[in-house]
Automatic annotation (TrEMBL), chain A:
Keywords, ordered alphabetically: Signal, Transferase
Gene Ontology BP terms: glutathione metabolic process
Domain GST N-terminal: 1-79
Listed InterPro entries: Glutathione-S-Trfase_C-like (IPR010987), Glutathione-S-Trfase_C_sf (IPR036282), Glutathione_S-Trfase (IPR040079), Glutathione_S-Trfase_N (IPR004045), GST_C (IPR004046), GST_C_Tau (IPR045074), Omega/Tau-like (IPR045073), Thioredoxin-like_sf (IPR036249)
Protein name in UniProt: Probable glutathione S-transferase
One annotated GO molecular function: glutathione transferase activity
Swiss-Prot/TrEMBL catalytic activity: RX + glutathione = an S-substituted glutathione + a halide anion + H(+)
Provenance organism: Actinidia rufa
Organismal lineage: Eukaryota, Viridiplantae, Streptophyta, Embryophyta, Tracheophyta
A GO cellular component entry from the record: cytoplasm
UniProtKB/TrEMBL annotation, chain B:
Organism ancestry: Eukaryota, Viridiplantae, Streptophyta, Embryophyta, Tracheophyta
Gene Ontology BP annotations: glutathione metabolic process; toxin catabolic process
Location(s) in or outside the cell: Cytoplasm, Cytosol
Entry keyword set: Cytoplasm, Detoxification, Transferase
EC code: 2.5.1.18
Domain GST C-terminal stretches: 92-223
Pfam families: GST_C_2 (PF13410), GST_N (PF02798)
GO molecular function (one): glutathione transferase activity
Domain named GST N-terminal: residues: 7-86
Primary localization class, coarse: cytoplasm
Protein name, entry field: Glutathione S-transferase
InterPro entries documented for this protein: Glutathione-S-Trfase_C-like, Glutathione-S-Trfase_C_sf, Glutathione_S-Trfase, Glutathione_S-Trfase_N, GST_C_Tau, Omega/Tau-like, Thioredoxin-like_sf
GO cellular component, one term: cytosol
Keyword set includes Cytoplasm: yes
Length: 225, 233
């Protein structure tokens, strides 16, 4: 039996479960409390101690983008990565960009205050302009007419950014500035596989409000370095 | 190098950069002829800024008129395009996943710890930074034993993706060892990696692109004086 160890709101876990569902691969989902890590998780991922972990027979695979490639290479139906080498390189490039820049910058814009907040919001908008540019002329999704690797890698934008905008009192996804991204989000959210496997808004909102308060309390505390 | 069956291949880079070296090694493995366009320290060419507007960084592989950026993305691209040459990524999906996992670990966790040695202020901090790097190398020693399965390289009998991902840093590892008068790769803790390092540096696809330690050490001094920063990204 294939197992996926995850955490309900994690964007890294969700992209893996979406990939498995798109491919029609059955699996057992094991919810992990990431604030109280189980012996199972520590044994499966001793290096990073993080979710997701995919267990496929004797194979244990960690790091979500690595898992996506493994899934695509193991189950050939519904290809996630494009066929052409330059398109594959492009998809990998933008997935890495979104992870290293957009996600970090938007999270920090949400969870910080004052000048730091302004700076990171500005960086977030600049990052999103680049993503918007990438979407022009693409069709329904980054993958064209079908959801692909890059859509799954960026799917977190559709449920985390609206929540972070609310909690952080910031505007990121302006439909006037980012019409292609806005249209892509609607297409993504309406996909049957995504609709079925989507964290509830109120629960997500509560989770991140709590996280933000913890971060602000930590930053404000004199004992924090 | 021997001729290529496809059109124009150019690589924008600089000789000290480990990231650029990855692309060069991959091209060498596939016997692809390429034009090497060297960037100068402290300035970025118009071609670089146009080809990599997002990050403005080297390496950039320009194949025909398509720019490909990010060193490990480039290595995978080279493997995909020149598929008839020796394989860089393993064919088995799980072996591939393991190679990708460790390559990501090297870039995201281990390399920052290596850069941390140069940035560490004071003896205690330096000692702690060195220990962190060695701990990472011990993990990689273990990975080598599992991946290599008794053969010369992480990739087996020939250099592969993970060899390239780690091996590109050997010049900088040696410079760090020299400048701090200690060993990061040693016989006691990482015997397999010590042997691997020599084989890697002596390989036909590597030896002409691996900078000499003394030359790199001189460059490091210039860099630190100029930018007061660790090795180039």
């Amino acid at each position: 039996m294939i197992k996926l160890v995850g955490f309900w709101v994690s964007p890294f876990v969700l992209r893996v479960s979406w990939a498995l569902k798109l491919k029609g691969v059955e699996y057992e989902y094991i919810e992990e409390d990431v604030f109280n890590k189980s012996p199972l998780l520590l044994e499966l991922n001793p290096v990073h101690k993080k979710v997701p972990v995919l267990v496929h027979g004797h194979n244990v695979i960690v790091e979500s983008l690595v898992i996506l490639e493994y899934i695509d290479e193991t189950w050939k139906q519904y290809p996630l990565l494009p066929q052409e080498p330059c398109d594959r390189a492009n998809a990998r490039f933008w997935a890495k960009f979104a992870e290293e820049k957009l996600m970090k910058n938007s999270w920090t814009a949400m969870s910080s205050q004052g000048d730091e907040k302004k700076l990171f919001l500005q960086s977030t908008l600049e990052d999103l302009e680049k993503i918007e540019g990438e979407l022009k002329g693409k069709g329904k999704y980054f993958g064209g007419e079908n959801l692909g690797y890059l859509d799954l890698a960026l799917g977190w934008i559709t449920y985390l950014v609206p929540v972070w905008e609310d909690i952080g009192s910031i505007t990121i996804l302006d439909p006037v500035k980012f019409p292609c991204t806005t249209a892509w989000m609607q297409n993504f959210l309406n996909h049957p596989v995504i609709k079925e496997d989507f964290p509830p808004r109120d629960k997500t909102d509560f989770y991140f409000r709590t996280r933000r308060e913890e971060i602000l309390a930590l930053v404000g505390s004199p004992s924090k370095g | 190098m021997a001729g290529t069956t496809t059109s124009d291949v150019r690589l924008i880079g600089a000789w000290p950069s480990p990231f650029v070296m990855r692309a060069r090694i991959a091209l060498n493995i596939k016997s692809v002829y390429y034009e090497f366009l060297q960037e100068q320290l402290g300035s970025k060419s118009d071609l670089l800024l146009k080809s990599n507007p997002v990050h403005k960084k080297i390496p950039v592989l320009i194949h025909g008129d398509r720019p490909i950026c990010e060193s490990l993305v480039i290595v995978q691209y080279i493997d995909d395009v020149w598929a008839s040459g020796p394989s860089i990524l393993p064919s088995d999906p799980y072996d591939c996943a393991i190679a990708r996992f460790w390559a990501a670990y090297i870039d995201e966790k281990w390399f920052p710890s290596l850069s941390g040695i140069a940035r560490a202020q004071g003896e205690e901090a330096k000692k702690a930074a060195i220990e962190q790097v060695v701990e990472g190398l011990v993990l990689l020693e273990d990975a080598f034993v599992k991946c290599g399965k008794g053969r010369a390289f992480f990739g087996g009998d020939t250099i592969g993706y993970l060899d390239i991902a780690l091996g590109c840093y050997l010049g900088w590892i040696r410079v760090t060892e020299k400048m701090n008068n200690m060993k990061l790769l040693d016989e006691a803790k990482t015997p397999n990696l010590v042997t691997w390092a020599d084989k890697f540096c002596g390989d036909g696809s590597v030896k002409d692109v691996m900078p000499e330690t003394d030359k790199l050490a001189e460059f490091a001094k210039v860099l630190m004086a100029k930018f007061r920063a660790p090795p180039p990204n």
